[in-house]
Design brief:
The protein has 374 residues and is of the alpha/beta class. It has 2 domains: 20-253, Aspartate Aminotransferase, domain 2 (3-Layer(aba) Sandwich), CATH 3.40.640.10; 255-371, Alpha-Beta Complex (Aspartate Aminotransferase, domain 1), CATH 3.90.1150.10. The protein has 14 helices and 14 strands. α3 (25-38) runs antiparallel to α10 (243-252), α4 (45-58) packs across α10 and α11 packs parallel to α14. It is globular. It starts with a helix and ends with a helix. One of its GO terms (molecular function) is pyridoxal phosphate binding.
Length: 374
Amino acid sequence: MALFLKLDLMRVPFNPLVRLHADRQEALGSALLDVLRSGWFVLGPQVARFEQDFAAYCGLPHCVGVGNGSDALMIALRALDVGPGDRVVTVANAAAYSTLAILAVGAQPLYIDIDPERLLLAEDALDAALALRPKALIATHLYGQLCAIESIAARCRAAGVALIEDCAQAHGARRNGRMAGAFGDIGCYSFYPTKNLGALGDGGALVSADPSLAARIRALRQYGWSDKYRIDQAGGGNSRLDELQAAVLNVELPLLDARNARRRDIGRRYLDGLAHPEIRPLARGGGDDVFHLFVVRCTRRDVLRAHLAERGVQTELHYPIADHLQPGLPRIDPAPRLARTEQACAEVLSLPCHPALSDAEVDHVIEACNAFRR
């Protein structure tokens, strides 16, 4: 009987990529074949089309495709002349992507704590950080939630601090009619395959309303060239969105809003159904949230994760180690006080949340959570 029950158990994978693309295999295959037949594989018509369409989707005049989201952050910092001796405000609970970009340009991260309800940049810590005269601030829209970006943007403008939005988990998130990436100087996107808008490999983009910044970004993504083999912009490198990935994104972009709507349906189903007192979903932001991840907190996180695994539910940790505690990163002296960040890293657990999930699978996850022993 035990063997029968184990075989009959519903399995809910976290991100089944084959399943996520099953309804678009023919369209994707056709798009890739078009690129192969064109003979144009780098910075061709597919990239130009995607840049134009994604800029329009974001409500901005400029989009520049790059190799990945991490490069997008690094290029944004360089475009804003951030370098050695500068400090950049960021949070420490987002897998060190912003930290690595800051260190790559020779600057120093200036960490501030997060709010305990949504695990986003804490407004109550912002003024003290801005008073230290940083060169820039990276506002991370984590888990598909927009942070308090209107207030953050206003404070950055008043302080003369450049604002970069990390939108890698917020494709399609809006507030008051404006899209993620449209509030700061530059918005940075990743198109990693598991993102709300994902490619079949790496990809990234930067969006901006500023034509001079967009021109600098275009130069920086390709060696600093103003023309072929002429370097007019220092700090350039090689980070280009390729034609194959752009072709994939051109298939995926028109589907983004509908797929985000399904993510919201799943998120609401979780919020309505989760009833265990130890399992605390984040306070979600309403209609602007695109539920890239559905994250809960639990003080017995590892025990809960094992319990869910026994019931066929795959989970992930986003993210278990705060940036300032990463063993391979430089230590900051004095060490930042980030109690809420460190507590969150010990408690967060991500439940499956993707548009291919069935209602039955979501209900199975809910039932498994609610059955967690008290």
